[in-house]
Amino acid sequence: MSTKLAINLHKLARFTNTIIPIAALTLFLAGWQISFYFHFLTVPLLGLTLVNLYYLFVQRNHSLLRNFGILGQGRYMLESLGPELRQYLYSSDTEERPFNRTERAEVYRKANNIDSASSFGSQNDFDAREIKLRHSLFPISKEGLLPYRLTFGEERGIQNTYTLTVPFIVSGMSYGALGQRAVRSLARGIAQTGGLMNTGEGGYPKYHLMENCDLAFQIGTAKFGVRHEDGTLHEQKLAELSALEQIKLIELKLSQGAKPGKGGMLPKEKITAEISELRGVPMGKDVVSPTHHPECEDYHSAVAFIRRIQDVSQLPVGIKLCIGDPHQFAELVAEMKRQDSFPDWITIDGAEGGTGAAPKAFIDRVGMPLFPALKSAQDILVTAGVRQRLKLVASGKLINPGSQIIAFCLGADAIATARGFMLSIGCIQAMQCGSNTCPVGITTHNPRLERGIDIADKALRVANYIHSLEHDLEELLCATGVRCVRELSFDNLYVPIESSLYPFARHP
Question: Are 127 and 496 in contact (CB under 8 A)?
């Protein structure tokens, strides 16, 4: 005989579906014969009866509701609440993805200028499979550190070089992907630190420009803001944008970590008069972002197109890509060498990068993870003898100092992060970025939700986050015994056999 406590949902559903109309009828009779006040219960039960009858006999989309009636609706309610229940009640501090509670809490504390020190020990597993930083037996003091300075465009000797004094860049997030208050919060916070913000591929950066911060204008495959109607580059529009004082750099996006090799579509229903103006697209017509730039059909044309943008803009110009095949990246570098023409930097975006929305197959299965991709790019550039011709920027889940310093050791000259800064202004990882229902008002254009963002307060949190990252990076540099990030190398890492970086590893 089984002692398992179980609920027979079939019997419970039959009982529920029977008792609801009986109760409604009973209360109706009581209200008629005994007291009118019983009708206050009759009305809701009658409504419940009608809804239940609709589920059971009218609608045909949901088999569960057709078989179980209103009781089956409980399943959909629990399913919709599942992410919140797991996030706050059932998942441990280290289980959630893409960022667990511990990782998010560290960013929140930094953004609020609260000490993020932990007690009693790490919650991570230590089983000799983690990449670790090799500390020095003789750490140095902060007085021995060199200030961070990275100048884009110096390799080409151009007049309009740009010097970055903060090693953390706000990765590409456009107005459209984010609401205007979120964009302005990030831009104002960056302006307070003297850092750099990437505009994303949303066309004319109206709201980025409002807060007077330094900007890198991103050109995606649709070339919003600098396009002809056929999707090719409009040189005059690019030249006019490049002449704006706040536009310091241009980034040509070849691919993105979350959806490499995938374009996109902006449906006509979402094209407001403002977006039509900012993106340079017509209203009443779907706009398709192609999988690649029509000017980039092969290695030769891609390098020539980069040079063309450099010539038109007269600014430092970089490219952003997610590596799929290191051999193809090596061919691209070889073509740069043949033409003696290089971008001023390359942003390596890992497959773990984020996006507002993309097919799950692309998010999960396409592209190389950041660390092996970054190491491959560094080795290819060094082997080709051209590493000194450009800078490397790393992007992909680099929200905390521990992951950031690993990227520096693998060859990065600067760090770009989008979700780190989203968390700093209050993102709760609700995973509703593409639905216009972001509960904290960051990735939505709904005024009722956007009003939750106080720009001045969030800007301060952005500045606090950057200052805290700088502080922790300095502490880690001192521990390694080096004076600046440019002195870091692969030798500063311990890489175990199980790591995807193992072919490149050095072991004691």
Answer: no
Structure tokens of 341?
């023409």
CA distances from 332 to 55, 264, 324, 391 (A): 59, 25, 13, 16
Q: Could you read off the pLDDT of 183-234 as tens digits, one per residue?
A: 999 999 999 999 999 999 999 999 999 999 999 999 999 999 999 988 899 9
Kindly give, in sequence order, each residue whose CB lies less than 8 Å from that of residue 209, ignoring residues fewer than 6 positions away. Answer: 215, 244, 246
Provide the pairing of β-strand 493-494 with 162-164. Answer: unpaired
What does the pLDDT read at residue 463? 97
> What pLDDT does residue 506 have?
44
Nearest to 422 by CA among 115, 159, 209, 103: 103
Phi-psi region of 261 (alpha: psi -120 to 50; beta: other; left: phi over 0): left
* Regions of the chain where pLDDT drops below 50: 1, 504-508
Buried/exposed code over 124-138 (b: 16+ C-beta within 10 A; e: otherwise): eeeeeeebebeeeee
* Nearest one of 252, 247, 144, 138 to 197, comparing CA atoms: 247
Q: Which of 242, 174, 231 has the alpha carbon at shortest distance from 202?
A: 174
| Token pair for 289 | 């972002």
